[in-house]
Write a structure and sequence with these properties.
This is Trichome birefringence-like N-terminal domain-containing protein. The protein is of the alpha/beta class and 592 residues long. It is 21% helix and 15% strand. The strands form 4 sheets. The chain has a 9-stranded mixed β-sheet with strand order 6-5-19-18-15-9-12-11-10, with helices on both faces.
């Protein structure tokens, strides 16, 4: 300041007129230089944004590539898909006329009896109440889904270890392996829903969509702060890519594979369903490396809690890890536990049909023998173990189509496949009960004073009963590839269950008080395309089982809910691996 004002005073002095003329020229030169530099920066920025390199810059900063046009809508099932051939070969995709109804399969053993997860528990699968796929979205408040399901058959104990696998089918009768060289691209919404309970900030992470379409998170709440927690790319928008590398294990290299999901051991003739890999649009989910995963989880415990679909994913994880190390079985009747000595990692599993408290004693006008669900209380069979878990993966939903009584605030408010008083209106139906249960269990975790772990909520797993319900001719037989363009038909029941689950997730977020983290693993739509990944009629090794439709066109009994192993369910654990990696190693994404 002294320099400027001092010199300004000398310019007014007549005897220093020569120096007075020099300073204005210096100031003018500085102004011109700064102005020229500013113009150059503005022009260069405009060039970067407006021309091809601009898309690279935007992709680097925002994860958006404007060269790709994406058709986006809010709910799974409403998006389009395109087939992008890698060469000039014809892509032969058979269009399947999917029905408007879907239902769940009650799995049976080789003798035709339904299976349980445990000897003293209800059946693993459940009866899904069909809803027309053409039914427009409506509020289900104070409305009910009619009970069409018949009584359940007798129950027999579940298989807990792999039984003797059926030898491979006669090579002459096995479908020839066809080389597939295409990718199925699905326009899926960005749904990397995540919450960091440490700051109590909600994050419904949504990468911006390319083109003129602006994305909106499937997770919405008036009080939710929409700030991205995970800066990695969206894992749920991408393509199913055929991978000739093959599966991470085989049915012969995993000793803990439940026979019902041992599709190859049960005689399924095709194997292409094992070779499809999920590829996000702007990054890659690396092939699962068991050694790296065990190192990532060193000294920690990963627990799968929930229904038979949770068991499906738990066994998939064990099968993958078993390829590098045979764990020590430290389980008991309350919890399955496998300990990997090299890294002190424990993989656990706890059975919980509904994730909320259940009783069988008489309650008000509900008699003994009918399961009572206390929708506002978590399942106390596993809550005592919660502080010991570092990562929890939750699975629920399908059992809400089974018989049960709903209790809320110490009052019977509804029931499924049970309601003796037609004159008394139901306040809560099975779909609403599911949403309430999700809020209850997640709230119990994000407010637990001694839990600081990561909770991964796997979204509702879709089934693929086409042509009817599980007990009315529904079938997934003969499906050998993922669905493609125009083939995905919205399943009304799956859609509503998904929406209720996300709503419960959002409500729980608002109640968070501890430092735990909550992530929504949004697989519902992605796996809606994988009708080829279920056991179908190949549920047991019986060589005399029926696998084809009869003379009257009726399909054989089949499982179109659970997933073959190896198969698409292994992708769930690759996504789990990536979610955990991002949490423990930082918010990074692998290059595409």
């Amino acid at each position: 300041m002294y320099f400027l004002f001092g010199k300004a005073m000398t310019w007014a002095s007549p005897k220093d007129s020569s120096r007075m003329a020099a300073y204005p020229r210096s100031v003018t030169w500085i102004v011109v230089s700064v102005g020229g530099l500013a113009f150059f920066l503005i022009f260069a920025s405009w060039i970067l944004i407006s021309y091809p390199i601009g898309s690279t810059v935007r992709l680097y900063f925002y994860g958006v590539d404007s060269s790709q046009k994406v058709d986006l809508s809010i709910y799974p099932g409403n998006q389009t898909a395109t087939i992008v051939p890698r060469d000039d070969k014809d892509v032969n995709i058979v269009v399947n006329n999917a029905p408007s109804e879907s239902d769940l399969q009650v799995p049976v053993d080789s003798n035709g009896g339904a299976l349980r997860d445990k000897g003293n528990l209800a059946p693993e699968s459940n009866l899904q109440v069909p809803i027309s796929s053409t039914t427009p979205p409506v509020s289900l408040e104070n409305k009910e889904i009619k009970d069409h399901a018949p009584p359940l058959p007798a129950i027999s104990p579940a298989l807990t270890k792999e039984e003797d696998a059926k030898p491979s089918a006669d090579p002459s009768k096995v479908t020839k392996s066809v080389e597939i060289d295409e990718q199925i691209s699905l326009s899926l919404p960005n749904k990397s829903n995540s919450v960091d309970m440490g700051s109590n900030d909600t994050a419904a992470s949504s990468d911006s969509k390319s083109g003129a379409v602006q994305s909106s998170s499937s997770q919405s709440h008036d009080d939710t702060k929409n700030a991205p927690v995970d800066t990695g790319c969206d894992l749920y928008h991408g393509s199913w890519i055929y991978d000739k590398t093959g599966p991470l294990y085989t049915n012969n290299t995993c000793p803990v594979l439940t026979q019902m999901q041992n599709c190859q051991g049960n005689g399924r003739p095709d194997k292409e369903y094992e070779n499809w890999r999920w590829k996000p649009s702007h990054c890659d989910i690396p092939r699962f490396d068991p050694k790296k995963f065990l190192e990532l989880m060193r000294g920690k415990t990963l627990a799968f809690i929930g229904d038979s679909v949770a068991r499906n994913q738990f066994e998939s994880m064990l099968c993958i890890l078993w390829q590098v190390e045979a764990p020590i079985n430290r389980g008991n009747r309350r919890m399955q536990r496998y300990f990997f000595r090299s890294t002190s990692v424990t993989i656990a599993r706890i059975w919980s049909s509904w994730l909320v408290k259940q009783t069988s004693e008489p309650f008000d006008f509900a008699p003994a023998g009918v399961t009572k669900l206390h929708l506002d209380a978590p399942d106390d069979n596993f809550m005592e173990f919660i502080p010991k878990f570092d990562v929890i993966v939750l699975s629920s939903g399908h059992w809400f189509a089974k018989q049960s009584v709903y209790i809320l605030n110490n009052e019977i408010v509804g029931g499924q496949l049970w309601w003796p008083h037609n004159s008394r209106p139901k306040k809560v139906n099975n779909v609403d009960a599911f949403g309430i249960s999700v809020e209850t269990i997640l709230t119990s975790l994000v407010t637990h004073p001694n839990y600081t772990g990561l909770t991964i909520v796997r979204s509702y797993s879709p089934d693929h009963y086409e042509g009817g319900a599980w007990n009315t001719g529904g079938s997934c037989t003969g499906k050998t590839k993922p669905l493609a363009v125009g083939e995905l038909v919205e399943n009304g029941f799956t859609k509503i269950m998904y929406e209720k689950q996300v709503s419960g997730f959002n409500r729980a977020i608002q109640k968070a008080t501890n430092k735990s983290k909550l992530r929504l693993m949004d697989i519902t739509e992605v796996f809606g395309y994988r009708h080829d990944g279920h056991p179908g009629p190949y549920r047991n090794p019986d060589p005399n089982k029926i696998t084809k439709r009869g003379p009257d066109g009726k399909p054989p009994p089949q499982d179109c809910l659970h997933w073959c192993m190896p198969g698409p369910v292994d992708t769930w654990n690759e996504i789990v691996n990536e979610i955990i990696r991002r949490e423990y190693e930082g918010n990074k994404s692998f290059p595409s």
